[in-house]
Design a protein that fits this description.
Layout (H helix, E strand, L loop, with lengths): L2 E5 L3 H12 L3 E6 L13 E2 L4 E2 H13 L4 E5 L3 E5 L2 E4 L4 E3 L2 E4 L4 E2 L16 E3 H9 L13 E8 L15 H15 L4 E6 L9 H10 L4 E4 L2 E6 L5 E7 L4 E7 L1 E6 L1 E2 L3 H9 L26 E3 L9 H21 L1
Parallel strand pairs: 1-2, 1-9, 2-5, 9-20, 11-18, 12-13, 12-18, 13-14
Antiparallel strand pairs: 3-4, 6-7, 7-8, 10-19, 15-16, 16-17
Helix pairs in contact: 1-2, 1-7, 3-4, 4-5
This protein binds flavin-adenine dinucleotide and iron/sulfur cluster.
The site of iron/sulfur cluster has 14 residues, from β12 and α4.
Length: about 325
Amino acid sequence: MKHVIVIGGGVAGMQCASELLRQNIAVTIVEKQQCIGGKIRNWHKLFPSFTPADEVLAAMQQKLTTHNNLTIRTGCEATCITPQKVTLSSGEELRCDATVIATGFTLFDATVKEEYGYGIYDNVITSAELEQMFNEKNVHLKQGGEPKRIAILHCVGSRDEKVCQRHCSKVCCVTGVKQAIELKKMFPTADVFNFYMDMRMFGPGYEEMYREAQTSHNIHFVRGRISEVSPTFNNRLQIKAEDTLTGRPLKMGVDMLVLLVGMKANAHNTTLAKDCNLTLQPSGFMQPKDSFLGNVASNVEGVFYAGAITAPKNIGESINEGTAAARGVVEWLEKR
Ligand SMILES: Cc1cc2nc3c(=O)[nH]c(=O)nc-3n(C[C@H](O)[C@H](O)[C@H](O)COP(=O)(O)OP(=O)(O)OC[C@H]3O[C@@H](n4cnc5c(N)ncnc54)[C@H](O)[C@@H]3O)c2cc1C
Ligand code: SF4
C-alpha cells in the first residue's frame, strides 16, 4: 500500500488526508501542535454563513476517525521535506511515497505596529483574541463592563510596506464585518466603527453581508487608517485617523480597539525552501508550480501543497485545495 505524509493538520491537511484514505492510500498526518484542527480551532462563527467553527471541525474530524490506515503524529514538527522522506525536529526520519505540505500561515504579531498600542494599552485586542472571547461568551473590557463604542481596524500587518507585508490577507475585511455584526448582536446599543483602506469583499455572500451590516445593524464604515492610539484619563482610548473620503482628520474616543491582524507566511518557509529546493514567493508564501494548471503542485516532483501555505485563503478554498492535492498525489503515484 502506498503511504503519503501530510504535514499540517489544519482544514487543508485534514481534507487531503481523508481524500487519500478514500483512495486506499495510507496516510500519516504530522502536526506540530498537540491536536489537529489548525487555526479554525480558535474561531467562533464562520463567515459568510455564521456556522459554528466547531461544527465544521467536528465533521472533518469525524471523516478521519473511521480509518485504520491513518496515523496522526501530534506534537511533531517537520523540518525537512522531500517526496520520499520527512525529517522531524527530533531527528526522526519518516519514509513515504509522496508528501503534501499543508502548514498554513502565521498570524501577524500586532506588537510590531507599536502605534496601535497592542500589548501597551488595555482594551486593544486582536481579531483572533476577539474570536476567543466570543467562544468564551465573555466579551468585556479589561476593567470590567461592556464596551459602548468599539473601533475595528483593517489591514494590520497587511498591505503595509513598513512591515514588509505587501500582500492583502484577503479574509480580514469580511472577518471585520462578521465580528462587527456579532458585537452588535451582543451589545445592540453599542456603536461599532470599521476603519478600512478598501473593502475587499470578494467571496459569495460577502458583499451582501457588508450591506446587511450597514442596513440591518447600523454599523459604521469609515474609509481611513488610524495613525495613533493613546489612553485617556478615564480608561478609554483616543484614536486619531484621517477620513480619506472627506479629507478631514478625525479624533474619537472608544472603549475597545480590535486589530484585524493579517495572514503572514510562516517564518519556517524560508528554511523549508532552501533545504528542500522549493520555490518561495516574495511574500514568503510557497510558490506553486503553475497558477492555473498546477496550483497544488510544487516545483519538486512528488511534493504537493494545500491551503494557506501558498497564499491567504478562506476555509472553503483551503478544503478544496486539500481535495485537489489528494487528486494530484493519486495521479502522480499512478504515473510512476
Ligand atoms: C482572525 C481570522 C478569522 C478567520 N475566520 C474565517 C472564517 O470565518 N471563515 C473562513 O472561511 N475563513 C476564516 N479564516 C481563514 C482560515 O483560518 C484559513 O482559511 C484556514 O485556517 C487555512 O487552513 P490551513 O489548513 O491551510 O492552515 P492552518 O489553519 O494554519 O493549519 C496549518 C496547520 O499546520 C501546522 N503546522 C505548521 N507548521 C508545521 C510543521 N512544520 N510541522 C507540522 N505541523 C505544522 C499548524 O500547527 C496547523 O495546525 C480566518 C482567518 C483569520 C486570521
Ligand atoms: S482583506 Fe481587507 S483588511 Fe485584509 S488586508 Fe485585504 S484590504 Fe486589508
